[in-house]
Amino acid sequence: MKTKCLFPVAGYGTRFLPATKAMPKEMLPILNKPLIQYGVEEAAAAGLTDICFVTGRTKRAIEDHFDISFELEASIGGTKKEEFLSGIRSLINSCTFSYTRQLQMLGLGHAILTGKKIIGEEVFGVVLADDLCFGQTGDGVMTQMMQVYEKFQCSVVAVEEVADSEVSKFGIVSGEEIEDGIIRLDTMIEKPPLAEAPSRLGIIGRYVLTPDIFDILEYLEPGRNGEIQITDALMQQASEGRVLGYRFKGQRFDCGSVEGFVKATNYCFASS
Fold first, then answer.
1. Can you name the CATH fold of 4-271?
2. Torsion 215-216-222-228 (CA) sign
3. 175 forms bridges with which residues in the sheet?
4. Which residues sit opposite 184 in a β-bridge?
5. 125 bridge partner residues
6. Which pTM was predicted?
């Protein structure tokens, strides 16, 4: 069974300063729930209940969030406010949580490699909490991607069309569409200039990875910005086998930006 999901959460969240000076960006709330909880709920719904965090020195609040607060629970026990904790209690009871620290910020590929010891030799999911996703079919994006993995038995990345002005912010991919919404990838470029982009399909923060990705990351040379790029590792994996791009059915909000965060808040408020 595939049960592990990796959450790289060591970043500084500089686009939200000063709010993130002392608070992890992943703990910023959409309505009354932090971003990281949305991501863990999505993973758990896909059967990925072994939650593995690659964290950093300023991220203790994430660890505390997925733990029991005896003083708080004693204070509100027996009152109507107790129901506000039902969602997080359910996650605490149904999931296990592991933590390891990324000592240096050397790129997403490096963050994923840092999680090798707690993932082991298993297929695993990766969720970037900055990308808040809602499925349109009743299944979350990670559930949809696990279904694609079960059929094709190879790494899967979530992709969507991005605007020309956004191309240089994404890993951009192209390839042959082998089924509706499923693309066998043959080209992946990390944050290319628009003129060099092979398509307008950008990778978003959802992955299902086979464990051989660790062997590639371990010996991968730094790429763009001197960082270990997961896009470069996936390109090598694609050349040795298969990597699929999946046009997920749902909606994504870039909550790593203030504009996207406000749009996500408005969407959730209108849906509540």
1. Spore Coat Polysaccharide Biosynthesis Protein SpsA; Chain A (3.90.550)
2. negative
3. 185
4. 176, 244
5. 5, 208
6. 0.93
Q: Which amino acid is at 1?
A: M
CA 79 to chain centre: 35
Binning the chain into helix, strand and coil, the percentages to the nearest 5 are 40, 25, 30
Which DSSP symbol is given to 17? Answer: T
- 150: exposed, middle or buried (C-beta count within 10 Å: 0-12, 13-18, 19+)? exposed
Residue count of the chain: 272
Query: Of 21, 15, 108, 38, whose CA–CA distance to 253 is shortest?
Result: 38
The tokens describing 45, both together, are 């719904």
Q: Is 248 exposed, middle or buried (0-12, 13-18, 19+ CB in 10 A)?
A: buried
Walking along the chain (272 residues) 10 residues at a time, the average pLDDT comes out as 91 88 92 95 95 91 90 84 88 94 87 93 95 89 95 95 90 90 90 89 95 91 79 88 90 93 95 82
Query: 22: how many CB neighbours lie within 10 A of its CB?
Result: 8
Q: In whole angstroms, give the CA distance from residue 6 to residue 50.
A: 9
Question: What beta strand segments (E) does 145-200 contain?
Answer: 155-161, 171-179, 182-190
Nearest residue to 140 via CA among 231, 205, 60, 43? 43
Report how far residue 130's alpha carbon sits from residue 169's, in angstroms, rounded to the nearest whole number: 14
Report the alpha-carbon distance of residue 112 to residue 95 in Å, rounded: 20
